[in-house]
Amino acid sequence: MSTCIFCDIVEGKIPSEIAHEDHLAVAFHDVSPKAPTHVLVVPREHLEDLDAAQPGHESLLGHLILVAKEIATKEGLADGYRVVVNCGSDGGQTVDHLHVHLLGGRPLSWPPG
Ligand code: AMP
Asked: From the CA of 32, how far away is ligand 1's center (Å)?
């Protein structure tokens, strides 16, 4: 039994509102959205965080960002959006499976807290 909630979502063991699926990544709507559009793009491969990424993961990392962009287009985020990767406790990461946040649908303030 997996102890990773995002691995369980990737494997379909936990229900989620899927926004995109392909051979490398799965994207689903955040259960606690921080913006009108809040989608998480995760690799099928379990990587704990961005720190766990190595040379060789370049195309996977690029793919996650491109998937986020494609979902932003599908969601009609013509006025812009934000793509965020939280890493580690200071970065605010709470789920230990690398994920890219896509946030949009309202003006987002900067800098983040
Ligand atoms: P982070 O704080 O960067 O690790 O982001 C983790 C995100 O996962 C948070 O925005 C949570 O709301 C979201 N989350 C946690 N559990 C689930 C779930 N079962 N389905 C969808 N999103 C989730």
From this structure: 7
CATH of the domain at 9: 3.30.428.10
**pLDDT over 90 (residue 2):** no
Domain interval for residue 86:
5-104
Closest ligand 1 atom to Cα of 91: 3
Distance of alpha carbon 35 from alpha carbon 74, whole angstroms: 16
CA separation for the pair 10, 15 (Å, rounded): 9
Q: What is the DSSP string of 12-56?
A: TSS---EEEE-SSEEEEE-SS-SSSEEEEEEESS---SGGG--TT
Residue 21 belongs to some domain of the structure: yes
What pLDDT is attached to residue 113?
84
Looking at every residue in the chain, the average pLDDT score rounds to 97
Question: Is 63 a known active-site residue?
Answer: no
Give a yes or no: residue 109 inside a domain: no
**pLDDT tens by residue, 34-69:** 999 999 999 999 999 999 999 999 999 999 999 999
